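Message: I would love a firmer grasp of how sequence relates to backbone shape in proteins. Thank you; the sequence and its tokens follow:
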Amino acid sequence: MFDSLGAFVPGGNMTFEGAEKGPLKGFGFAVKDIYDLKGYVTGYGNPDWQSRRRPSTAHAVIVQKLLDAGAMVIGKTITDEFASSLDGQNYHYGTPANPEAPGRIPGGSSSGSASAVAGGLVDFALGSDTGGSIRIPGSYCGLFGLRPTHDRITKEGVLPLADSFDTVGWFARDAWLLNLVGEVLMDAKARVDVMPEKLLVAVDAFEALDERSRQALRPHLERLEQRLGKAEYVSLNPDNLQATGLSDTPQLGLLGLAGLFQVLQGREVWDTHGAWFERVKPKMGPDIQQRMDWRKTITDEQVSDAAEKREFFNRRLAGLLTPKTVLCLPSAPGIAPRINENSEVLMAHRSQLLALTSPAGLSGCPQITMPLATLDGCPLGLSLMSARGGDLELLSFVEKFCGGENESQSLSPF
């Protein structure tokens, strides 16, 4: 296959035919280079890692499941090094193109998978989401993407980054195909009796956007209210302690959540791979190297404090996300930055990204990004989150919602 987008890893024709029959027969998919494919090295986006690994002896479990359902593997896609960035720019292998926003980054770390789907090279693609690596590329590249409930789908045969945050995930251009893949991977269909009926809107998340981004998303929020009724406006992590009714509850705002995520995830990354990094000293891009160097300095006290605050946040979120309830928030703080944006701007942008992606990461709740809005001709995603285990109902709702809606009068305050 001719790779016009720079989305696929070099090194061979990594294709596998699916079963002769199945619900996904006729569909081709790509696999992020953290999933095992039989006979090939899982490269993790880094040449030093790849050169020290042997070819896999079996496919990752969910790759095999998709093959058994009739889908065909088209190839392996580029990932940011060690699946450890949200930009989509790999120091060694380059930046996959963003077909929906030329000249702008595709988002990472599932960069190649998002590029391949957005460019029509495959029908859907496997990525992963630890800190936003499905939701951010989905928003930047104009795709549907699901970060499922933590541990809802097996990660056997998938390279780990931070296990208590890692999830598999996938992209599609159409909501119905995103849903169909979910039904295959979860061996089930949505339950009619627990479909979403109530809408929450994360006020602090929308207030984190600039005015133009809020206005671009506003009509789609109104459509959600038309479907589900007048929204209840809530704060994910209010700065005001009294607003929670629990004055002893630590509340740090959304950037505070990002800080908790970075500490907890960073320690897990170092616990998983630190010894290898210290022994091998792999050549990494400057931003990834800086991040790894910081991760080894995280103290036990920082981890203990962050873990306690994570529990407070998760209890509060569980009280908001009751059954049949969905929470709406922006997928990203804006459209994709330009490829030539300087590193300091991208680093500041990363903090804004994590402020929006950390709630699902910390709680393990499922979240779907929907390609509903555009700004300056570039995609801008809107997300829905539900309680843990509500993946199929979320997928089914999004399929129906995105199948055609009537515009309504303004109901939202944004």
Notes: DSSP finds twelve helices and ten strands in the chain.
